[in-house]
# Entry
Amino acid sequence: MHKHAHEVDYNENPFIVIWEVTRACQLKCVHCRADAQPLPDPRELTYEEGLRLIDEIYEMNNPMLVFTGGDCMMREDLFNLAEYAIKKGMRVSITPSATPNVTKEKMKKAKEIGLTRWAFSLDGPTADIHDRFRGTPGSFDLTIENIRYLNELHMPLQVNTVISRYNYNHLEQMAKLVGDLNAVMWYIFLLVPTGRGQMNDCITPAEHEEVFRWLYELSKTAPYDIKTTAAQHYRRVVIQQKMREKQIEAGDIRYEHAMTTDRASIIDGLKRAPKGVNDGNGFVFVSHTGDVMPSGLLPIVCGNVREQPLARIYRESEVMKQLRQPDLYKGKCGICEFRYVCGGSRARAYAVTGDYMESEPFCVYVPLGMRKEKNRTVFA
# Structure
């Protein structure tokens, strides 16, 4: 018997599992976490190992399962694996790259087996911006063509966008395009400088804040849901904006335990996980060779599913356990009154400082505790 989502205990089970079914990919995206390669790795999990992994994931309170890559379409048994999971009653989505591997036949097959959502990446409102980011001419046109066909099939579309220097000044156009393409979800990623992603491709902390405020306003009128990754502080911005609008009282979230994350999902209305998901905290990543990490953007190997069950690694790894304790975060994140709903991107903290427990380096917010301390120092 599986619990309802609002009863999820992230110490026990994740809300979402990402399985990188292959590293193979024909694109050369500038931000690629995976440093994808043209051919499949011979050490990839086999079909039988994949089925066993799906069984293990299902037993962890049946979280959402996302097949990713590289390009998951480069894996020949992808639909067999997906169908196996769907028949067990799992919610499965895929994030293929926009390459000639995505055919009308494959989209039809995906619909037939019951995939809940198909995610395509669009990183700019024009071919010029998107193709430069993706490192592949023609990628934009191919993606739009694929999306149009997906619409004809009436399959739910999710558009994934990495916000970076490349497209920061074109977000209004992007938002309109996502609506025009009939997406049900706009999934925003804030660039983490790992893999091919570079520090100077990131937007500044102040620009992060501007983007979050803009997204919040957009969320009131957009015909699609907005979800964020590596942007945990968006939850804080949403709550602050709702406080300014007097939709919630400041007392609701003034101090730590008054703001458990279950309460946050009621407040922010973001139609997502009932508790804030963070690297290793409601979120877990399995690599093409079975390595288990807190997320693909926080590449610390905590175990391997060939050697230990996924549940044991997720529940017992010291790294994972640390990540689930916001009180242990360092710097301002550790004393921030929003640490239970936000917690900052642990992946970005790691990428910038080398310490996954450090403060989110791209957050401008000064916690109440630090402001009080500063005032005491001024008046002492």
Remarks:
- The two ends are 59 Å apart (CA to CA).
- The chain has two domains: 16-315, 320-379.
